[in-house]
Amino acid sequence: MLGLRRVSYWQRCANPEARADVAEAKNSIFMPKKSVFGMYKSASEHTKLKGSVSAWIYTIPVVIVIVGYLMSYVWASYQRKIHPEQAQQQQAQQYQQQPQNYQPQANGQYPATGSYAEQAANNQQPPDNNLKPEDWQPAIDGQPWTAPIYNGHNRNIQTMPYPVACVQTDTSCTCYTEQATPLELPAKQCQNYVKNGIYNPYKARQETADNAPQGSYGGGSGASVLTLDSSAKPTMAHAETKGTMGQ
User: Where is the composition biased (Low complexity) (predicted)?
Assistant: First the structure.
């Protein structure tokens, strides 16, 4: 205290840490002179105890937090399993308390109040259902029915451009659909259909050989007409006339 030091003396060899020896010692109080401090090096530099803090001091709190979180999660999951109706009621109450444009996340949970997800949901604008000029812009040039406004009708397909008749002349070969519209096919492919016919995988299987003939060939030396359908199509009259005129 106040820079004072105490020195103990004994008449014999004594233990300075034993209480009995300390009680028998003769004490002397003095104040060290500061002028002589620079003349020696303190021995306290090599007498200080050095030790490292155990890693468990930092690990144990983390382990306690993780174990507590896992226990609470397991307990909440167990409660939801044994009382599913309560969990549904709580979720319904949370949904009713939120705005209509408040959407749940991908995992089915709602974002916390005041979070970025909630702010983004509140900032969403209602969808614009008004018609716009681009709704009538066709996706394929020259085909106005491919505009986005007709998407609902374009997916309602009732038939397809399947060749039901082919007409071959000395200079050309054309195949037609059931609506008497020409198909854009290579000339070699059209000629092959006229010569060998075409397999129709969409036609019902026939049980007897009496119903085998499904096509009719006509025409003289100048033209050949192949009807690939079993029944005559009224809309194909002009196509057959075209083949006859080419003879």
Answer: 89-111, 119-130
